[in-house]
Amino acid sequence: MKTFYQYAMIYRGVQKKNDFKKMLADWMFKDHNFPKYSNDYDELSRYLEWNSPFPEALKIFDELWDEYILNK
């Protein structure tokens, strides 16, 4: 089973400009402290609450999380 981080990486490098999913995936990739092996919603959302890279990040995280759960 893929971790949330692995799932989010499908958006990394997407060529759309101003795509928030791409922005979040790129940030997660570059952030060496992001909990990459976690599948715990609470742990991931707390990390983003404390380290949010842009104002829409938590909303985008919730959207990605819903997609992740549906595609498990």
Q: Report on the biggest sheet.
A: none
Q: Low-confidence segments, ≥5 residues, pLDDT <50?
A: none
Total number of β-strand segments?
0
Radius of gyration: 11 Å
Mean pLDDT: 93
Estimated share of beta-strand residues: under 5%
Order of helices and strands: HHHH
SSE class:
mainly alpha
Description of the structure:
The chain is an all-alpha fold and 72 residues long. The protein has helices at 4-8, 20-30, 41-51, 57-70. The protein is globular. The model has no long low-confidence stretch (mean pLDDT 93).
Please name the defining characteristics of this protein.
single chain; 72 residues; mainly alpha; 57% helix; 0% strand; globular
